[in-house]
């Protein structure tokens, strides 16, 4: 028990040291402040993402002909039949589909025959969907200039919160991949690590302290970004899910950052490696919906699972919140990275050369 208390005390002191050093580190401040500033700016403007094929729910009596027409003439729409518009609206709000249309043949005016709900999390896609569906329905009714159909948002989603998963993914990746790798590499260059290892601290305590330092930094930054974008009122269960996902991701990328620093000979080489691999790691996750190729490619990157999980928790409401796959993959990546660290750190001499 005394040894356990002493270990906790040493880890706490190492975390305190890292916090003090980060306040003097311009790179650390830049990594934290840049995403915060960008997040604040994006709370005022809309995001501009690439458009993918759309999934459309169709319901209502005598809607089979409409479904057949869309399948024959509009290849960018994947149609699903729903029993009623309520189910389609809920699926759209949950992020399972992009839009829901209910057709009622009874009203005299064409525009009154349709109830249309769109996924409004992406402002650009909202208007593209609106234009595409207007064109689709005008073609279906053989109209040169279509009527003014009534488009509704399936749920109220602020643009600032819709872009938040992107910025959180970018920030968490940067903190682990660049800040933590640079921190340990700097200590290796300055012989600080060698000095620490001749005291009561051991390499495992240093690794734990670095990982917890990254976790604390990620939580603080994520909380600030969430507050700026107004998502701290989404409910306890969703906030708890976000906390678990963000925590798991923090250990994934701090583990990867530690691997980079352990295998690097100097701080400059560590920084170069982090910079080189940063964009290949982050890019597939953010453009996964562009094509089938990017969708398959993204499956090999932890950033994809982090982004998908945050999108489900922070943006969408309703039933599309099964996070078991994303959480399991993030935990698997973390275990793999820390297993590599454990195996490598058994050669303690290589850490202080």
TrEMBL record:
Keyword Cell membrane included in the entry's annotation: yes
GO CC annotations on file: plasma membrane
Membrane topology recorded in Swiss-Prot or TrEMBL: Multi-pass membrane protein
The organism of origin for this protein: Halanaerobium kushneri
Domain ABC-2 type transporter transmembrane, first and last residues per copy: 29-342
TM segment ranges: 27-45, 163-184, 212-236, 242-263, 275-294, 323-344
Subcellular location: Cell membrane
GO MF term list: ABC-type transporter activity
Matches recorded under InterPro entries: ABC-2_transporter_component, ABC2_TM
Keywords: Cell membrane, Membrane, Transmembrane, Transmembrane helix
Pfam families according to UniProt: ABC2_membrane_3 (PF12698)
The protein's name: ABC-2 type transport system permease protein
């Amino acid at each position: 028990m005394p040894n356990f208390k002493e270990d906790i005390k040493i880890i706490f002191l190492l975390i305190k040291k890292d916090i003090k050093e980060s306040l003097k580190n311009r790179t650390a401040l830049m990594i934290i402040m840049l995403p915060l500033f960008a997040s604040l700016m994006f709370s005022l403007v809309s995001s501009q993402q690439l458009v993918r094929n759309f999934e459309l729910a169709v319901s209502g009596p005598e809607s089979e002909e409409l479904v057949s027409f869309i399948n024959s003439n509009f290849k960018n729409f994947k149609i699903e039949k729903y029993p009623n518009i309520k189910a389609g609206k809920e699926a759209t709000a949950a992020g399972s589909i992009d839009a829901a249309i209910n057709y009622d043949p009874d009203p005299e005016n064409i525009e009154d025959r349709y109830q249309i709900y769109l996924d409004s999390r992406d402002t650009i896609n909202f208007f593209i969907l609106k234009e595409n569906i207007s064109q689709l329905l005008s073609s279906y009714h053989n109209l040169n200039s279509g009527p003014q159909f009534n488009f509704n948002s399936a749920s109220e989603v602020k643009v600032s919160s819709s872009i938040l998963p992107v910025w959180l993914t970018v920030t968490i990746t940067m903190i682990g991949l660049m800040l933590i790798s640079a921190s340990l590499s700097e200590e290796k260059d300055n012989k600080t690590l060698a000095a620490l290892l001749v005291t009561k601290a051991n390499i495992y305590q240093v690794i734990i302290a670095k990982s917890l330092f990254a976790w604390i930094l990620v939580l603080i930054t994520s909380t600030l970004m969430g507050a700026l974008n107004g998502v701290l009122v989404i409910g306890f269960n969703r906030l708890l899910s976000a906390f678990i996902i963000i925590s798991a991701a923090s250990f994934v990328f701090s583990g990867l950052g530690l691997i980079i620093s352990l295998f690097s000979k100097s701080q400059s080489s560590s920084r170069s490696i982090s910079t080189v691999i940063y964009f290949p790691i982050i890019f597939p996750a953010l453009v996964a919906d562009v094509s089938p190729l990017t969708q398959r490619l993204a499956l090999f990157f932890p950033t994809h699972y982090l982004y998908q999980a945050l999108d489900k928790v922070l943006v969408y409401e309703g039933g599309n919140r099964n996070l078991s796959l994303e959480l399991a993959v993030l935990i698997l990546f973390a275990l793999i990275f820390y297993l590599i660290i454990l195996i490598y750190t058994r050669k303690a001499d290589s850490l202080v050369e």
